[in-house]
Amino acid sequence: MPRGRYSLHDPHDHTPLGEEHFHCATGPSGWRYVSQLTTPAGDHSGSVDLTLDDLGRPIRLQLQAADWQVRGAALDGVTWVRTDPAGEHATEGNVPQARAFTGASPAFYVALSRALRLTPGAGATRIRLVGFTSPVLAPRTLDQSWALVSRTAHATDNGPLQVDEYQVSDLETGEQHTVNLAGDVVLSAPGIELEDLDSPPSTFT
C-alpha cells in the first residue's frame, strides 16, 4: 500500500500551493486513494477520497476544500452533490456523457489511466470529464484526449518498475502536457512533484 507525499505548485509560475499526503491501495474490487491536503504553512486545506471499481469507474468520490464538499459517483454518466460551507444548501449535477471526474489531485491521473486502459502507440482517445478545482469546488465539464506514448521498464532494488508516459491534451485550449505514472503513483505531472514514497507503487492486474 503506497504511502507518500506530493508537493503541489502552480504549473505556470511555480508558486507553492501546499502538499498532499496520501495512501492508496489496490484490491479485488478496484482501487482506493485517500489524502489530506495542507497549505504551504502546513495548515489543513482539504481532503480527497476516491474509490474506483475494477473497470476504473468512480464508484465514490468525496472532496473537501475550504468547507465546500462534493460527493459523486458514476451514475447515468457522472453525478455529484455539492454542498456550501454553511451546509444549508446542496446542488446536484449530472453529465450523462462524462465518464469520470478530474481535478488538481494526482489521484485523478491514476483514475483516468485505469478508465482508459490505453496501449502504447494506439493513438489518442477522447474523454469527457467533470472537473472540480479548489477552493470552491465548482464543477466544469471539459474534454481531453489521452495517448500512451511509451511504456518503459526501469531497474530498481525491488525489481523492474514500469513507467507509462502519457500525453494529455485539453481539447478546448489545445494545451498539452506530459504525465508519467508508475502503477498507482504519479511520478511527474504539471504542478505535481512526488517528494516521498515509503513503498513501491502497486501493480494493476
In short:
The protein is mostly beta strands and 205 residues long. Helix content is 5%, strand content 60%.
What does this structure look like?
By secondary structure, the protein is mainly beta. Helices cover 5% and strands 60% of the residues. The protein has one helix at residues 107-116, and strands at residues 3-9, 16-27, 30-38, 44-53, 58-65, 68-73, 78-83, 90-95, 100-103, 125-133, 138-154, 161-170, 176-182, 185-189, 192-197. A 15-stranded mixed sheet has the order 8-7-6-5-4-3-2-1-15-14-13-12-11-10-9, covered by helices on one side. Helix 1 links the parallel strand 9 (100-103) and strand 10. The chain is globular, with a radius of gyration of 16 Å. It comes from Streptomyces nondiastaticus. This is Glycolipid-binding domain-containing protein.
